[in-house]
Amino acid sequence: MGEAVSNSLPLNIVTLLIPILFYFLGLSSNLEQIKILFSEKISLLCGLGIQLILLPLIGLLVSEIFSNSLFGVAAVIVLIVPGGHVSGLLSHIKGGNVPLSVFLTSFASVISPFTIIFWLTIITSRSSEFNIDQVASLVQLLVFVLAPFVLGMIFKKNFPKFTNLIFNPLDKFLKLLIVVVSIWTPIDLASYILDNIQQGVLISTTSLIMIFVISRVLINLSKIDLPNAKTLQIEALCQNFPIVLGISLALELPEVAIYGVIYYLTSMVFAVSYSFSKKY
């Protein structure tokens, strides 16, 4: 499995293109909309709390429940990455607050070098399966995630003509890339996914049910207005698939990539079904 994952062409392609994904996210950031969103402090705090604290804690709980599984560690690693970009589209379909979705994804992505290292340190302290070099991993995440994002924001502000020229082509390219990788990766690793599909679906479904129920309770208790509530619910169900694959290769944990694919496909069933449902 390890050799197949490390040599997987779609995984290596998406890992190399992670900086471009975050550069585009920086180009997409709208500072004026962000200023407006800060008036909705409860929604922001609840959304960040769900993404940065609740999901990793659920991951730790699920990893304890399935500690004897091949995917015991993978179950929590998948939930420590920032939210996925597809959440913005699903929020639009559901009638949610798209700027809020974009901001939560952007902010969680910007600080992800620090949050991922924090949670990885906790995971390694509880597991002997792998170790990480915190400094080297942090530097790698800063270079691959934070630096491209900041560069995108700088280019948007200082080179608007260049930004307008490349924005739409880059947008289409990245959307196509995500679609291709989402289809190509399961095909490329089909034998390993099929061998582990039962336990992968069981663990990912357990995680998603817990995420949906607990996040919904928190959202309802926070008395957030309906459009924002819909957005936060979708954000809770979407993780950043490319970063999961990148972590798998960086930490040399092939099972994270296999589980990441299974979780991504399972979560899309949950998130898409919810976004098209007529109920809250």
Topology:
Blueprint lengths: L1 H5 L2 H8 L1 H11 L2 H7 L3 H25 L8 H4 L8 H9 L3 H13 L1 H15 L7 H25 L1 H29 L1 H6 L1 H25 L4 H12 L3 H10 L3 H23 L4
Helix pairs in contact: 2-11, 2-15, 3-10, 3-11, 5-13, 5-14, 7-8, 7-14, 7-16, 8-14, 9-10, 10-11, 13-14, 13-16, 15-16
What is the compact description of this entry?
With 280 residues, this protein is mainly α. The protein is 81% helix and 0% strand.
Description of the molecule:
- With about 280 residues, the protein is mainly α.
- It contains 16 helices and no strands.
- Helix 3 crosses helix 11, helix 7 runs antiparallel to helix 8 and helix 7 runs antiparallel to helix 14.
Essential attributes:
280 residues; 16 helices; mainly alpha; 0% strand
The major beta sheet can be summarized as: none
Helix content, binned percent: over 70%
Number of strands: 0
Quaternary structure of the protein? single chain
> What is Rg?
18 Å
Number of helices: 16
Question: Unreliable runs, pLDDT <50, ≥5 residues?
Answer: none
Shape: globular
From N to C, what is the helix and strand string? HHHHHHHHHHHHHHHH
Mean pLDDT: 85
* Alpha-beta content class: mainly alpha
Strand content: under 5%
* Cα distance spanning the termini: 41 Å
